[in-house]
Amino acid sequence: MQRRIFLQTSLVAASLSRISFAMPTVLPEPTPRKLPRWRGFNLLEKFVAGTSGPVPAGAYQERDFEMIANWGFNFVRLPMSYQCWATPDPAHWTELNENVLKEVDQAVDWGKQYGLHVNLNLHRIPGYCVNPPAEPLNLWADERALEAAVFHWRHLAERYKGRPNREVSFDLINEPNTDEASYIRVVRALVDGIRAVDSGRLIIADGLQYGNQPVFKLADLQLGQSTRGYLPMNVSHYGASWVPMLKDAPEPTWPAQWMNATWNAETLRKIAIQPWQKLEATGVGVHVGEWGCFNKTPHSVALRWMEDQLKLWKETGWGWSLWNFRGSFGILNSDRADVKYKLYKGMQLDEMMLRLLRKY
User: Fold this and answer.
1) In this structure, what is the dihedral angle of CA atoms 196, 84, 90, 124, given to the nearest 10 degrees?
2) Longest dimension (CA), the chain
3) Displacement of CA 183 from its chain's centroid (Å)
4) Residue 337: which residues within 8 A CB-CB, separation 6 or more?
5) Number of neighbouring beta carbons within 10 Å of residue 129
6) CA gap 176, 207 in Å, rounded
7) Distance (Å, rounded) from C-alpha 323 to C-alpha 300?
8) What residues make up the domain containing 20?
9) Is the pLDDT of residue 223 over 90?
C-alpha cells in the first residue's frame, strides 16, 4: 500500500515538474498607453467581508503567490471589499482597521518577492458593488459616498507611494453599472484624489456595462482600461445560481447558441475584441481583468471556449486574469464533476486547464 502511494505521488510530481519553470526576475514596465501582457489570477481572500459568503475573508496565502509564479504567470488581481477594513456604516466609513490593511501590504510584498504584478481593485467601494447587498448610499448620486470612496483610494495611494508601477497598480471600481456621465464624474474624482498623493500611479478603469463596454471619454485621463471575458454568459455561467436569466438554460456547447445568435471565435472577435481595439488605437492600454468558466459547464466545452478566448487575446497582445485561482472557476479545488484531478500540495489540480493557460 505504501509503495503504491509512493509511486502515485512520484508520477504526479514528475508530471507537474514538466509544467513548471523558473520564476521571472524582472516585471515588465507598464504604461497607461500599453499595459503588459500580464497573465494570472484573481485572489479572493478579501472579496467579501466577514466569515460568510462564497469565500470567507482572510489573509492572503504566500503559497498562492509561489505557485502562480512557479507556473510562469506574472499577475494577481486582488478584488477587495472596503468592508474588510472599514464598517458599512456611512458614519464611520473613514475609520480603518490597520491590521487588515497590513494583510494587503503583505500581499504586495509577496508580489514583489515572487515577481508578480499586484493589481488592487475595490470590488466593493463605498456606495457601489455589483453584488448584493446594496450599499447604504449611492456612489453615483450621493456626495458622501463619493467623498468616502476618494478617501479610501487616497489612503491606498499614500500607502503604496514609492512602489514602482511594475509592482502595483490600482483598478478603481469593479464592473460599474450606471450611465456614462455619472461614471466619468466619479472616475475623475477618484483619479484626482489618487494623483494628489501619487501623481505617477498607474490607474485602470473597468469598462461600463459590467466591464464589457470601453469608455472613450476617459481616454484623456491617461488610464488603462479593463475588459471582461465572460461572453457568452450561457457558457461561462451555466448553472450559476446568481444568474437568474440562465435558470432554465440547456447545457451549453461550443460553438454556442445565445441571444438568437451563433457564438464562436469570430463572434467573440467582433463583439468583445474589436470595440476595445478601437479604444486601444486612441492610446489606452487594455487588459482582461476577469474571465473564466463556472464548474457546471462541461469541462471539454469550457476548455474549447477558453482556448478561443486565449488565442484572441494573444493575437491582440492583451493580458488576462482568471477568476479565480482556487475555487469554482479556477485551476485548484474547482469541484468539477467531470475532471480527473491531480493531487498537488493537498489540493485538487485541473492539470488540463493549467496546461491550456500556460500555452497562451
Assistant:
1) 70
2) 67
3) 20
4) 295
5) 21
6) 7
7) 18
8) 2-359
9) yes
Amino acid at 243: V
**Residues 239-261: tens digit of each pLDDT:** 999 999 999 999 999 999 999 99
Amino acid at 257: Q
The answer to whether 94 and 149 are in contact (CB under 8 A) is: no
> Which grid coordinates are listed for 46?
478579501
Query: Rounded CA gap, 202 and 169, in Å?
Result: 5
Amino acid sitting at position 358: R
C-alpha distances out from residue 359 to 306, 311, 315, 316, 353, Å: 12, 10, 13, 16, 10
Cell 437568474 belongs to 244
Query: pLDDT band at 55, cuts 50/70/90?
Result: low
Q: Is 118 helix (H, G, I), strand (E, B) or coil?
A: strand
- Nearest CA to 182 among 153, 214, 140? 140
Tally the domains of the chain.
Answer: 1
User: Taking a C-beta distance cutoff of 8 angstroms, is the pair 255, 266 a contact?
Assistant: no
Using left for φ > 0, alpha for ψ between -120 and 50, and beta otherwise, residue 260 falls in: left
Q: Which residues contact 277 (CB under 8 A, 6 or more apart)?
A: 316
Residue 20's Cα: distance from chain center in Å? Answer: 23
The DSSP string of 142-203 is: -HHHHHHHHHHHHHHHHHTTTS-TTTEEEE-SSS--S-HHHHHHHHHHHHHHHHHH-TT--E
pLDDT of 25 higher than 80: no
CATH of the domain at 73: 3.20.20.80
Q: Which of 223, 137, 227, 149 is nearest to 186 (CA)?
A: 149
pTM of the model: 0.92
Q: Does the CA dihedral 181-186-190-195 come out positive or negative?
A: positive
State which H helix or E strand residue 75 sits in.
Answer: strand 75-81
